[in-house]
Design goal:
By secondary structure, the chain is mostly helical. It is about 70% helix and about 5% strand. It contains 14 helices and eight strands. Helix 4 crosses helix 6, helix 8 (about 335-355) packs antiparallel against helix 9 (about 360-365) and helix 10 packs antiparallel against helix 11 (about 395-405). It starts with a helix and ends in a 9-residue tail after the last strand.
């Protein structure tokens, strides 16, 4: 009995424990479920928020992309519109050009039709005139036979003679017209090419014919150059062979000497002494001696500079040295080297205008006066000496020939490069500002020109224009015929060339003019 009670008690205890365990477990499960639901709710809330954020980002990105695409599209549309507008403008311009060309062609076609009609009319008129001339000749032949009692053969000879005289007169008139027309065309083309060359090469040149100026840092330097009791200035003049002029000119000393080489050596010596600051007789002699030794290099630098300025880089070294020596020779207000550079540049321009080789032409211009540098054992004009020197150093035959010809009297036989060199040399030597002319000798030369022209029979008045470059002669219309003024102008030119010396050329114009006046009453 006790065992049953114990068993029942155990069972009841186990049952109660099981019920309590089940209830406790159910409570835990309920708690876990609630926690799971809460966590699920939080995850759903976070997922919703994240989805909203992603949605907003996606909308923003899509809007930005749409905006960019729209901007690119609008830009592309705008560029296309601009290109289309340009193409339309080009098409319109081409259409206008085509219309102009079409109008011009129509005008030319109309002109050709008109000229063709005119030619047909002229042809018919000439045929009619020829028929009338033949009839007139026949009547003249018969009249001559009746009046002079000449035979047909004799009358024919007389008629032919009269026709020959008339033909000669007409030929002289026609030749004169052709010569004038040709001269005008040649002068127009020559003036165009020459003016182009002069405009492009025109420059300013400093005249250093007998003096050079040395700048000083201050006027106190003048006293140091003079030295105690003038010993420094005497040492400079003795070492360099020049005269130093120290006057009231502020911050400047004048170096005077007729020899340009000695003057340049003295100028460089003085500049170095001033820069060094030590000016005493021993230093002066040392500096002058050093400059004299270095002067060959200075001359070579001058030649290389001239070759570089004209674009000629393959000259023989001896020719470059001789070019540098031309810097210390003068022609008018230029040095010969400056004159040569100017002539070379103008030669290149004229050669390009004449479809020749500008490089060869510039070479001719740069070397044309190289014969002015003295060469022992060579005699003749500087043109022939220059050609011989260039030939010695393997210059091209075109160059040596042009140099030999650049002072020729008869330009009709010159080579193309010789003619260009002759022309540009005369332009450079005679252009305004290059040469200085004494007023008295200048006026005397103008008066001599006028007197020579007035001395010819039939000349009523003579005038000199353009500083002696042109003479205009007025002839009496009753004393000189149109055919005779051609011969008269040539006689005047020949006498001026024979009796006067002048730079460049002189144009002689003979004018025959008739004037008649009357009054209406």
């Amino acid at each position: 009995m006790n065992i049953v009670v114990i068993v029942l008690s155990v069972l009841v205890g186990i049952l109660i424990s099981f019920v309590l365990g089940v209830m406790l477990h159910k409570k835990q499960i309920s708690k876990i479920f609630d926690e799971a639901q809460e966590e699920s709710r939080k995850l759903r809330e976070e997922a919703r928020k994240e989805a909203d954020a992603l949605k907003r980002d996606a909308i923003r990105d899509s809007k930005e992309e749409v905006r960019k695409k729209r901007a690119n599209f609008e830009k592309e549309i705008k560029d296309r519109k601009i290109e289309i507008q340009k193409l339309e403008n080009k098409i319109k311009q081409k259409e206008q050009n085509l219309e102009k060309k079409y109008s011009l062609m129509e005008a030319k076609e109309a002109m050709l039709d008109k000229q063709q009609v005119q030619l047909q009319e002229d042809d018919a008129r000439y045929k009619r005139l020829i028929g009338e001339c033949e009839k007139t000749l026949e009547q003249s032949r018969r009249t001559l036979q009746n009046i002079a009692g000449l035979s047909a053969e004799e009358a024919k000879r007389e008629l032919i003679k009269s026709l020959e005289d008339e033909a000669k007169k007409e030929a002289a008139t026609r030749i004169q017209e052709i010569e004038e027309q040709t001269k005008q065309e040649i002068e127009a083309r020559a003036k165009s090419a020459i003016s182009l060359a002069v405009q492009r090469i025109a420059g300013e040149y400093i005249s250093e014919s007998s003096v050079s100026v040395v700048s000083l840092p201050n006027d106190d330097m003048k006293g140091r150059i003079i030295g105690r009791e003038g010993r420094n200035i005497r040492a400079i003049e003795q070492a360099t062979g020049v005269d130093l002029i120290i006057d009231d000119t502020p911050e400047a000393v004048i170096v005077s000497c007729f020899n340009p080489v000695r003057r340049q050596i003295a100028k460089i010596t003085l500049e170095r002494l001033i820069a060094d600051g030590r000016i005493h007789p021993a230093r002066i002699e040392e500096t002058a001696s050093r400059v004299k030794k270095e002067f060959d290099g200075i001359i070579e630098e001058q030649g290389e500079r001239a070759a570089f300025e004209t674009g000629i880089t393959d000259l023989h070294p001896e020719l470059i040295k001789r070019l540098g020596q031309l810097q210390y020779r003068t022609v008018g207000t230029q040095t010969v080297l400056q004159h040569s550079i100017e002539v070379a540049n103008m030669c290149g321009i004229l050669a390009a205008e004449m479809k020749l080789n500008p490089r060869i032409a510039r070479r001719c211009g740069l070397l044309h006066d190289i014969g002015q540098v003295a060469v022992e054992g060579m005699e003749g004009s500087h043109a022939s000496i220059g050609a011989e020197i260039c030939s010695r150093y393997d210059e091209a035959s075109e160059v040596t020939q042009a140099i030999r010809e650049h002072h020729a009297e008869d330009i009709s036989t010159l080579s193309p490069y010789g003619l260009i060199l002759h022309t540009t040399n005369m332009i450079s030597r005679t252009r305004p500002g290059v040469r200085k002319d004494v007023l008295e000798s200048y006026l005397r030369r103008l008066n001599d020109m006028e007197n020579i022209v007035r001395s010819f029979s039939g000349i009523t008045e003579a005038y000199v224009f353009q500083a002696g470059r042109e003479i205009r002669a007025m002839v009496s219309p009753t004393g000189v015929s149109d055919e005779e003024i051609v011969t008269l102008s040539r006689d005047i030119v020949a006498r001026i060339k024979r009796e006067l010396s002048f730079p460049g050329q002189i144009k002689v114009t003979v004018v025959r003019e008739s004037k008649f006046s009357d009054f209406a009453k």
